[in-house]
Design goal:
The complex is a heterodimer of chains A (about 180) and B (about 240).
Chain A lengths: L33 E8 L9 E6 L24 E5 L5 E6 L12 E8 L6 E6 L14 H5 L4 E3 L2 E3 L2 E2 L9 E2 L6
Parallel strand pairs in A: 1-8, 1-9
Antiparallel strand pairs in A: 1-4, 2-3, 2-5, 5-6, 7-8
Chain B lengths: L3 H10 L28 E2 L36 E9 L10 E6 L24 E5 L5 E7 L4 E3 L5 E3 L2 E6 L8 E6 L18 H5 L4 E2 L10 E4 L2 E2 L12
Parallel strand pairs in B: 2-11, 2-12
Antiparallel strand pairs in B: 2-5, 3-4, 3-8, 6-7, 8-9, 10-11
The chains are: A mainly beta (about 180), B mainly beta (about 240).
The complex binds fe (ii) ion.
């Protein structure tokens, strides 16, 4: 297998990766905007101030966006992709729209990628909307593990903490065609 | 106080213990100790958005962003280089018109970043970040200067081999890759716990660019070639739009 190995994003990724408005998939204050946010925590529950979160999601209609313009946003086009760095308190946030189901009866989720100094490779996970629809991934997990993948509804958004290690460790995902 | 000899011993004990990707649990890289997931990754079949990657276009980027030597009013110091290569997926298909981002230290080994306070000079003419889209054949090209090695605080007298950080997208979400490109023959390879976190030597070598004289330009820049293979796609060609 000749797949290029990953390497840590390191402590200086702010130089190359975050960009103005990266966390604003829709402008904050847009009529249907929700805040998806949370903290990234290490194995001792300490906030991780040098993590980067990427969000990739369907629109409210459940369709996968194919529009360009995530880096230079025009304020009108929903591209479905964003990037947010954690602050000194390990907190990240996105202003976005609630994704719809890919097919009727499916539980919608945000696809999430996590990078951090100290992580030798990126991690993937899903942040699901709260709900009761059956789901192939969630239904196969023990309740405590399942809970790590489900966002908590708040008045104006959705809360999704990411526990890199230890108690309440988030379920991180791999996919069949990746090298392990 | 952890010495280079201590770290080297730890690196040695873990040699060949992991697969073709870096070990997530890799104590010689001290910052990983409280940050790696202890549970196995949960394998899942990608669905919905995971079968697609975000799209970037010409409006997202200026062509000039691929040239890190022209971002300021003057010429940066250091050895001018061209780094080019082809991005393909695990099935050998070029990854076309997709985003590639890089960031790096300057020729003295100093980053344009608040957290890098080690006493090597900043270069007012070099910031060290660039991006481009691959062309119709999956090829990217950056013009920059060769970054210097730099010290870090993993252990006493720890130095990173010269490297350029790369961020890549594929044609589906699962192919997302952030990695580092190294230069051939660096004497610091054996001592570096980040490079060595990939414990399979064959896989590790995939991170090292090759000097390529056909990329070198007369009286201007030395050329390096670094081709990148991402993992396999999960979408069948029929689903391509
Ligand atoms: Fe670096």
């Amino acid at each position: 297998m000749s797949y290029a190995p990953g390497q840590t994003v390191g402590p200086f990724f702010h130089l190359g990766l975050p960009f103005e408005g990266g966390n604003l998939l829709v402008p904050a204050g847009y009529p249907d905007a929700v805040r998806l946010h949370g903290r990234v925590l290490d194995g001792e529950g300490t906030p991780v101030p040098d993590a980067l979160i990427e969000l990739w999601q369907a629109g409210p209609d459940g369709r996968v966006p194919r529009a360009t313009g995530s880096i230079r946003r025009d304020g009108f086009t929903f591209t479905g992709w964003g990037r947010a760095q954690t602050d000194g308190d390990g907190h990240y946030w996105f202003s976005t729209l609630t994704p719809g189901p890919a097919e009727p009866g499916r539980r919608p989720f945000f696809a999430v990628t996590i990078f951090a100094r100290g992580l030798t490779d990126r991690l993937f996970t899903r942040a699901y909307l709260p709900g009761s629809e059956p789901d192939g991934l969630l239904d196969g997990l023990e309740p405590e593990r399942r809970a790590t993948l489900i966002t908590t509804r708040e008045q104006r958004g959705l809360l999704f903490d990411i526990h890199l290690q230890g108690e309440g460790e988030t379920v991180f995902l791999s996919y069949p065609r990746q090298a392990r | 106080m952890t010495t280079q000899a201590d770290i080297y011993r730890e690196i040695d004990e873990l040699r060949g213990s992991g697969g073709p990707q870096p070990r997530r649990d890799y104590p010689p890289y001290r910052s990983s100790v409280l940050r790696y997931p202890t549970r196995d990754l949960h394998q899942v079949d990608p669905e919905g958005v995971e079968l697609w990657a975000p799209c970037f276009g010409a409006a997202d980027i200026d062509d000039a962003e691929a040239d890190l030597t022209i971002q300021r009013s003057g010429e940066p110091l250091g050895e001018r280089i061209i780094v080019t290569g082809r991005v393909t997926d695990g099935d050998g298909r070029p990854v076309r018109h997709q985003l590639v981002e890089i960031w790096q230290a300057n020729a003295s080994g100093r980053y344009w970043h608040q957290r890098d306070q080690h006493p090597a000079p900043l270069d007012p003419n070099f910031i060290g970040a660039g991006r481009c889209l691959t062309d119709g054949d999956g090829v990217y090209t950056f013009r920059t200067v060769k970054p210097g090695a730099y010290p870090w605080r993993n252990h006493v007298n720890a130095w990173r081999p010269a490297h350029i950080h790369f961020s890549l997208f594929g044609t589906d979400f699962t192919q997302r890759l952030v990695t580092q490109m190294y230069f051939p023959g660096d004497p610091l390879f054996d001592l570096d716990p980040i490079y060595q976190s990939v414990t399979d030597p064959k896989a590790r070598e995939l991170l090292v660019a090759a000097y390529d004289h056909s990329v070198t330009t007369p009286e201007r820049s030395l050329g390096y070639r670094w081709d990148i293979v991402l993992s396999g796609t999960h979408r069948t060609p029929l689903e391509e739009s």
